[in-house]
Amino acid sequence: MHTKGPAPQYHDGSNLRIGIVHARWNDTIIEPLVQGAKDKLLEAGVKESNIVIQTVPGAWELPIAVQRLYAASQVQSSSAGAGGSAGDLLGSSTADLASLSAGSSVSTGPFDAIIAIGVLIKGETMHFEYIAESVSHGLMRVSLDTGVPVIFGVLTVLNDEQAKARAGIIPGSHNHGEDWGLAAVEMSVKRKDWA
Ligand code: DLZ
């Protein structure tokens, strides 16, 4: 089945700081999604040092991670330093959430947007329904409570095949991570305009 994504808009991302938080469940699907998002951020001019990637065990943990990561980046904005070490999957600036909260030197300002990436694949129990609903509500809540765009990069699919088709793994399929990267830049720029 063909799904039509948004017509892409291209904005200058050179002054933006973007966080990516991704789950580690279903990592073979997660990795190309994160890479796709990161590629589009870089293409838009976001500096590699301004892309901070964090991981959490599963999609359930995404809302709290996004909330804490944003709060930590705000605290850090006055006492900033550069930094970051190798990323869990992709080698971008990363930091342990606990150390961010404790005031480490990774963050150099509040994030303009945070992309939350997870892959939920329906199993035989009700786990999928509970997690999918809670995570989507949780991420929306964090976004509205903080006023920061939280990009919804959570795939909720029925099987591996559907997941692969949305991660660009199947030849000819589209990597939705790219859309999330573009959405993060667009919403960051527009949010500054709407401030
Ligand atoms: C438990 C669970 C299950 C069954 N399925 C997924 C999944 O498809 N994708 C995902 O990201 N996480 C899954 N998890 C783990 C939960 O998100 C969470 O990490 C654990 O329940 C611990 O809180």
Question: What attributes characterize this protein structure?
Answer:
195 residues; Rossmann fold; 6 helices; binds ligand DLZ; 4-stranded parallel beta sheet; alpha/beta
Can you describe this structure?
This protein is of the alpha/beta class. The protein has one domain (18-194): Rossmann fold. The chain has six helices and four strands; from the N terminus they run βαβααβαβαα. The chain has helices at residues 27-43, 62-76, 97-101, 127-146, 160-166, 176-194; strands at residues 18-23, 51-56, 113-121, 150-157. A four-stranded parallel sheet has the order 2-1-3-4, with helices on both faces. β1 (18-23), α1 and β2 form a beta-alpha-beta unit. The longest helix has 20 residues, at 127-146. The N and C termini lie far apart (39 Å). Residues 80-106 have low confidence and may be disordered. It binds ligand DLZ. Ligand DLZ binds at residues 23, 25-26, 57-61, 118-121, 123, 127, 131.
